[in-house]
Amino acid sequence: MENDIFGNAILDYQLGSYTEDIKTYSSLDEEDVIPVPYLFRKFKVMPSLEQRALKLCKGRVLDIGCGAGSHSLYLQEKGLDVTALDHSPGAVEVCKLRGIKKVVRSDFYDFKNQTFDTLLMLMNGIGIVGELKYLDQFFTHIKTLLKPGGQLLIDSSDIIYMFEEDEDGGYWIPDTENYYGEVTFTMEYKKQKTKELAWLYIDYNTLQRAAQSSNFNCELVSEGEHYDYLAKLTLNLQ
């Protein structure tokens, strides 16, 4: 697990060897920290959007990008049939150690031949898409994982607030061909760094248009306090 920066950090915490947090560096010229203990949070201290999403889960659930497994663990304790999915070996090991019964190590696009009533992608899980141009590929694969009448629950953020606002209430966005929510970042833990990763933050209107073009209904379930939101997507069967 030499390059499994995220997995190494949460596995250290699980095994009682927590000494530092994960540092992140993004193309937005921001340095930030992911507090590792926060990834092990209980339901009562989760953001309201996450709580709402977990309460909407039904039937057989796939927790995509499960991380330390806090969402999966809550759903399992509530009696739901949940599968925790992550490509990180460390994350998979942590989920097993925390008692999650169904844990799968796989890249999202390599996971096939199973269907679910609820697909869960929290903590900006749609970030794995990387760039807007890959949304069609993303939705195509989502369709193979959904049971008839199934739902995809996603939270994300409109990061327009990170750009300078002008006197008219607009924003100064760099003049590039890229969508402003397309970000690259690296993670650092114990002096080891990941390679640069592409990550997508998507505003709700852009998500809704992309979803509709792929024959999904897209509903704004709830909005958070800081440009974040929870959306529910279902296939349009008409």
UniProtKB/TrEMBL annotation:
The name this protein goes by in its record: Class I SAM-dependent methyltransferase
Q: Does the keyword Membrane apply?
A: no
Ranges for domain Methyltransferase type come to: 62-154
Single GO MF descriptor: methyltransferase activity
Tell me which UniProt keywords the record has, alphabetically: Methyltransferase, Transferase
| SUPFAM superfamilies named among the record's database cross-references | S-adenosyl-L-methionine-dependent methyltransferases
Under the heading Gene3D superfamilies, the entry gives: Vaccinia Virus protein VP39 (3.40.50.150)
Top EC class, one word = transferase
